[in-house]
Amino acid sequence: MSRPDQPTADRVVIAVFDGLRPDLVTPELTPNIMRLAANGTWFRRARSVFPSVTRVATSSIAAGAPPIVHGILGNAFYHREAIPDRIFDTSDAGQIRRAEAHHDGRLLAADTFGDVLARAGKKLAVVHTGSAGSAHFINPRARANGHWTFSMHGAEATQTPEAVENAIKRLGPLPERELPRLQELAYGGRVMTDIVLPTRPDVALIWFNEPDTTFHYRGLGSPEAMAGLREADRAFGTILDWVEAQPDAERIAVIVASDHGQISTGSVEPLFETAQQAGFDLSAAKAVDGATLVATGGISGEIRLREGDPREVERIAAWLMENPAVGHVFSPDRNGVEGQVAGTLSLGLMGTGHGTRQPELMFILKSTLDADPYGLPGLGAMTPGDVPLGGGMHGGINPHELNTVLIVSDARGHRGLSQEPAGIIDIGPTVLGLLGLAPAATMMGRNLAAPPREEARVARHSGGSGAFAQHVDIVEQDGRRFILGGGH
Ligand SMILES: [Zn+2]
């Protein structure tokens, strides 16, 4: 993995559409993504990681590896050594600063493609319209790397506040928040075309916060979500126009990606209240109090033993496996497939079993391929939160949460649809490979601009206890794995 490929590009432009499902990439909704696809390779089976949430995915894109390598294990997770008094909210700039201070700037515990670019004397410029945390994890050492990250959340939400100050000077004040986030998408597009791209950075990345945000709060097929997606695609179109107008356009590779998909919520499952009623001393509060067990929710979540009798972990695992709403239960690795707790599958198998940060248990609520009210397949349960019933969610291993958009367009031209295994962990190695740079030693993804070395191998891994049965389907190729889906 350490030998660099021949460079096929001088510069790379990346556009990430948060939460975009590939089945919503159509000539009508996303004509500009389709324009790029007509000149590139669309990896139609591309996959996110588990848990399929934004900051875990962002970190996996940056590190070219799943959470077992980089250690960002959830949008929220209990990281006791760094932040003992509360559940770590990885979207929050202040909490990130605390955790980075604890880790001497290596909270994301692996080299990123930004780090590799910096060592090669190359520039990465990021225009981010998502949370401060997501802007952080795409290039967590941006300041030390001499790079540039603009955040739509303002100068306090990035290590390089001058990026925001400069944009405000040039383009006017940051837009007001609205749903869908139309003005932010347009503003972000202008930061790219008017400020970033003319300076010719080696790699420029824009992260659109739609369609994810409006999927969550208005529903996947809602008119508002479609308006957000169309505007994100329009802003991307202005970037693509800029690239195509360059005299050296054929030396500029373009990658379009999403970080995860989404499914619709068909039910709200008060899992933690039910556990408390069943006698478990469990807290899902943000402030960590005296409870024996602490938990995070969503479609998936973690349960950790804060203190007390370790047998409580086995007891609540058995209780989860008897709960009809629970589809999967995982614990730290025992033998590569099973977890240490009877009936569970291995967190290592899932690419999430980070040595020092993994929880005692993770769970996923059940979901199906049934159609939602808009006719889109994928319907699941979630624990109570700020997303309304019927809104979109992600975090599990439903194929429609895991399947991402991934299109690579470089000088080799149109190669159409590819059914080869691929995923978000390939983005960093592909960026580096296009520029002729070797990936970092900890990267597990591969350069998608070159052919794979091996045939893909698909395997089903099963576990269970009593009446509870669970399985995951995983494809392996070239030393990396992607979760295709699961069942119960
Ligand atoms: Zn996301």
Can you give a write-up of this model?
This protein has 488 residues and is an alpha/beta fold. The chain folds into two domains: 11-263 and 394-434, Alkaline Phosphatase, subunit A (3-Layer(aba) Sandwich), CATH 3.40.720.10; 265-390. Helices cover 27% and strands 23% of the residues. The protein has 14 helices and 23 strands. The chain has helices at residues 31-37, 54-63, 67-70, 93-102, 113-119, 132-137, 161-171, 182-196, 212-218, 223-244, 271-277, 311-322, 399-402, 427-434; strands at 11-17, 41-43, 76-77, 88-89, 124-128, 148-151, 203-208, 252-257, 263-268, 282-283, 293-295, 300-305, 326-331, 345-346, 361-365, 367-371, 377-382, 392-393, 406-409, 416-418, 457-465, 468-477, 480-487. An eight-stranded mixed β-sheet has the order 6-5-7-1-8-19-2-20, sandwiched between helices. Helix 8 runs parallel beside helix 10. The longest helix is centred in the middle third of the chain and has 22 residues, at 223-244. It is globular, with a radius of gyration of 21 Å. The mean pLDDT is 97. The structure holds zinc ion. The site of zinc ion (ZN) has 7 residues, from helix 2.
Brief synopsis:
The protein is an alpha/beta fold and 488 residues long. It is built from 14 helices and 23 strands. Helices cover 27% and strands 23% of the residues.
